[in-house]
């Protein structure tokens, strides 16, 4: 009997005992559903949280001049202080990094400024920041109304501003601020957007609520008593690519800062990937736990399948005797029952994979805003496990069937 004939015989046997086959396949499908479903849910939630962490700046790093913050080394020894990063260096770094990451360049203009509009003014607690086109995204600031800076405004240094919600309420109340003018640091700016309320930031800074954002070129052209210090924040798409991009950025920044060969970096790079690292560790532990739960469920399914295959061998003892009398070998009998067990497992496993993927994505969607994830790895693992369970559960009943004596089998009633 060939393999194809064995498969046909397996389906014929399954069709003749349809209810028993369906119940057995359901047992297997529940085991596969629990395994694939748990692992899919973990992956989908991790994907969703990674996207959230990315929007919060988890997949990013900051570059600043080394020693410029006057932090002490161990033992209270002051480290060497290097010049701050200037405007030209920040622009060169952004151009050279290219598409490897999304670079946001900003400069601190003032920390206690007043804004005026007509006869109203804010308290002297507004931060004034000059930023480029990527500043809002990298800082996770969203616009409530209005728009971001246009490319022409960024390049020409136009007098436009985006203000925080608290600043808007102080100056305009419930009226719209879009298109109106405010006076800031002795100059008139047109308001083009208002930021969403973010609540108080760390240290009572007000977050985005007490912020006035102006184009980077505008801030660079404003009169000042001392040179501006430029901050560079680079965001990457995924946490996995962060180390590679950081290595690229280090080489580019050394060239931009003209650090000599063998000299230490004249800048510091600080990444914000601690949340992503903790998430990877936590999801790894959850996957181990989920795999164990799914494995235990599959173990119960394999025992049930073995029991049903034993019943099938007992019911078909006379049939086995007839096949052997007609010339079927022990190997062919064993193959027949093994293929039957594998077919049942694959049928149940296919249903379990569909249910598991649906369940995992449903759990992720219920917990948070997740995207539909197709876990090809877990689907392939599920199919491999189905075949393995079929072989493991069917081998003993198949061996028992192959060892039956044909004469005794023909006498069996």
UniProtKB/TrEMBL annotation:
Sequence ranges assigned to domain MacB-like periplasmic core in this UniProt record: 21-225
Main location: membrane
Membrane topology of this protein: Multi-pass membrane protein
Subcellular location, record wording: Cell membrane
One Pfam family of this chain: MacB_PCD
Transmembrane segments: 21-42, 288-313, 337-356, 376-396
Keyword Glycoprotein: no
Residue ranges of domain ABC3 transporter permease C-terminal in the record: 292-405
Keywords tagged on the record: Cell membrane, Membrane, Transmembrane, Transmembrane helix
Entry's family note: Belongs to the ABC-4 integral membrane protein family.
Entry protein name: ABC transporter permease
Taxonomic source organism: Hymenobacter koreensis
